[in-house]
Amino acid sequence: MPDSENKRVSSGLPRLDKMLGGGFIPNSSILLRGAPGTGKTTLGLHYLIEGARQGEAGLFISFEEFPQSLYRDAAGLGWDLPALEAEGKLRLLFTSPNVLRQSLATPDSGVLKSLHDHDIKRVVLDSMTHFTQVIDEVHELRRVYHQIISAFHREHVTAVYLGEEMRSDYTTEEKGRLPFIVDCVVILRYLEIDSAIQRAIVVLKMRSSAHDTAIHGYTIGQGGITISGPLEGKSGLLSGLARRSMISTVVE
Ligand SMILES: Nc1ncnc2c1ncn2[C@@H]1O[C@H](COP(=O)(O)OP(=O)(O)O)[C@@H](O)[C@H]1O
Ligand SMILES: [Mg+2]
Question: Ligand 1 centre and the CA of 94: distance in Å?
Fold first, then answer.
């Protein structure tokens, strides 16, 4: 029997769920990759807010932002994070890569205890790229990625790992082969189309499931991310060499 939609974990964006063939696979690992400002943190919050709506508690782990700037950014999108925390539907953890690593490797540590005590089903880690700043050696990086992903897998959460994509550290992250380790890869991109910058989202990989391979446009505003239909009539979008395809030229 194919996965029915109700067995999947909603990303919080109905259109993305459709692209994923119904949503994320329960207890899987998802890499959400994109350049700074593409909307990774925003999508991560969508995912946790949807969990809160469905009665599934979520944990947002940040190596990056201070609580106040995250609260402020979320408020700008229309989300009241302190209210969700007060209701016990969301937990925010501001820590460092090394402390998290140690904590996940230690039974009864604060993080593991928090997952159990609050019955957390959804985790967002912002961001996996920070491990490349504290670990130089490629094999060690790969080992740590495995360690983190396995720890959350064991705890039966569905984990979304954010990854910064920058030309300067692209190769470093590739060296850790993170896209090979996770079950699902979603990419956020800026695209230059017809002399304007647009935002695009695509599901690049989805283990053990069919998925939509089309590149979709999206916008960010009040209420967060809104995904539109596939960007049609263009070719070479992700290679950065977008141009009108022959078909659309003929149609026009
Ligand atoms: N209230 C808002 N209205 C419109 N755009 C917003 C709003 N809040 C944030 N953005 C846009 O969202 C993007 C930041 O998203 P964010 O999730 O922080 O990106 P990332 O985590 O990938 O760096 C920025 O490009 C910003 O312009
Ligand atoms: Mg961010």
Answer: 20
Q: Would strands 216-221 and 224-230 be described as parallel, antiparallel, or unpaired?
A: antiparallel
pLDDT tens digits, 106-133: 988 999 999 999 999 999 999 999 999 9
Q: Is the peptide bond before 28 cis (omega within 30 degrees of 0)?
A: no
Q: Is 3.40.50.300 the CATH classification of the domain at 5-251?
A: yes
Distance 150 CA to ligand 2 centre (A): 23
Query: How is residue 249 written in tokens?
Result: 């030229």
Alpha helices in 23-126 (DSSP H): 40-53, 67-77, 81-86, 97-105, 110-117
CA-based radius of gyration for the chain: 18
Q: Whose CA is nearest to atom 11 of ligand 1?
A: 220
The pLDDT of residue 132: 92
